[in-house]
Amino acid sequence: MNMNPPGLLPGSNEADPGARVLIVDDEGLTRMMIRRVLEDSGYRVLEAQDGQTATRLCDAEQPDLVLMDVRMPVMNGFDACRAIRRSLRSRHTPVLMLTALDDVMAVRLAFEAGATDFITKPINWALLSQRVRYALRTARTERELRESQLALARAQKIARLAPWRLELDDGRLHCSRELRDMLGLPGNEPVAMRRLLRQVAFEDRGALLAFVRRVRDGRSESEVEIRLDGSQQPSRHLFLSGDAMLDEGGRTCAIFGVAQDVSERRHAEAERSYRAHFDPLTGLPNRVLFRDRVATAAAAAQQRQQRFAVLNIDVDVLQRTQASVAADASERILRAVARRLESVMREPDSLCRLEGDTFAMLLTDIEAEAQIAGATRRLVEAFAVPLQVDDWELLASVHVGVAIWPGDGQEVDTLLLHSGAARSRAREAIGSSCHFYTADMHNRVIDRLNTEVALYRGLERGEFELHYQPKVDLASGRVSGVEALLRWNRPGCGLQMPDRFIDILEQTGLIMDAGDWVLREACAAVRHLPLSLAVNVSPRQFQHPRLGERLMRILDEIGFPADRLELEITEQIVVEDEEGAIATLHDLASRGIRIALDDYGTGFSSLQRLKRLPLHTLKIDKDFVMSLETSRADAAIVRSTIELCHQLDIHVVAEGVENDAAMAMLRGFGCDIGQGYGICRPLPLARLTDWLGTATVSALAGRRPGG
């Protein structure tokens, strides 16, 4: 060691002011000389004579730099350096190791122990302070870099930012730890792009691939937002921005960028939107959203030339006299009311809570007044059943006001105002009620509702009856069968024809009970007559999943042969579900029941379909038959239809036979059966029996009972 005392070194005024240096050496003279040099350079100096003392001082004083000899008693410099690096308080403190000039092994061991640099002995006093100053400056730069990185990491964590890089040659994505946490990916290995795609919501995958193509091709747009698909509730939203990385040839070789988790922002936006558009108590749309939906319905209805209706509803909840409902139960009652209202809605309709106990319902795609009548009837019927709230059963009455676009108003506010006025009129009635803003519509709908109720009662009270219209074999003049036709003897209204009530029976579902009654009554009436029996089947009856079993059960009860029963269906039944209808018809035919296609020529008649159906009879529509004498085209159609059917082994019935001339033409065409007012009107069973005793084709011109 050079023992010559140094003087003040040049450049000492460049020392970091106040920097503290810990000198660790077991030789007191060496420590003194180093102290002198460093203090002359403006540093503050701490001393330790062994490694153990040095580690304690590092934790307690946190010096800015440690200058430590390699070989010392108690704890050598290597072990002391390792201990300093293990300490959280001093692990980044620069450590300069003092070692002999030719001790290469010591230098290697020093670096392995975590030393920052080394100074050889004998010490070059002129350079000592410069080496210390350089080490301090480097440490300060590293500290600033660490702090910058920590600040960046904190900022990225707060902003939920995560760097990434996509290699285009192999399609592998290099993810930062933050992005791996977002995606739930284990390990540190790159991830194949196709694996990432599986985690993206299906509808956003195309947008992600388009984003990659835009960045790859150097376009200006370089951002995209995607949602992650998975079990996360609520869902995760990632905002990606990226830029291209070019190789030496100027081609894009990779894409690098940042992913930001914007889930909280999107969820907050969704929450704000929900609160702005939905009622927090019932979860139903509020007035704001309902207005938007009505405006949308108006635009759609105008384009499709359809109507829609706004129903203004309030519900009065009347508790049973023996029940006691606490005041704080009002919210639970309102939620129960909302659920009851929802239970009667169709799929395309909308329900909202306007305020208090007032609700509104939007009925779209209205093609007939019957749909509105059905909706109001369902509302009234729904509240005929008590509401179950906790342990209470509550009776409620519902008042409904109806306004229809466009007749009752074309603006949202006008429709709400008019439906509210109609609701006020409905409240004047006792109990549940409905009122339409337009008087004519109100009368028609009320008449419809009254008819529905009367039909229910009519079935229970036996107000229905059957009339039978004969069918005559045109070749022999004999009556071969009858068709059973339903009539309703409605009290106060007289005998009602089917066109006044069949549609209502069909829409309300009463057609099933009515159809069973018709079949039982007709089979019992005709059972002892040598005639076939034709009965009409409605679309709803035909769609019954076990129609054949249902019919055979009734026939067995009555004792009526299946081969004497002929079911008349319209072609529309087959058009709606051709394959299903054909399967049902084959099942019926296999049981011996005959099938007749009614009103042929009025629908989308298809010869291909005619060939596939297991038909026994085809009935030509009366409009063709009644114009035989005046229309050569209709006559040609009737003739060709008869000839075609005979080639297919199908009998032909001509409906609407009104006179002898038409009958003669049909007989000339080879038609099998005639039916119409010119032969006989539909008759009650007693009058039919009298007529059958004397009826022949030759007498038809002068003798037409009921004509």
Automatic annotation (TrEMBL):
Residues 20-136 form the Response regulatory domain. Gene3D superfamilies: 3.30.70.270, 3.40.50.2300, EAL domain (3.20.20.450), PAS domain (3.30.450.20). Keywords: Phosphoprotein. The modification 4-aspartylphosphate is found at residue 69. Residues 448-696 form the EAL domain. The keyword Phosphoprotein applies. Residues 306-440 form the GGDEF domain. Residues 222-274 form the PAC domain. It comes from the Bacteria. It holds the Pfam family GGDEF. InterPro entries: CheY-like_superfamily, Cyclic-di-GMP_PDE-like, EAL_dom, EAL_sf, GGDEF_dom, Nucleotide_cyclase, PAS, PAS-assoc_C. This is Diguanylate cyclase (GGDEF)-like protein.
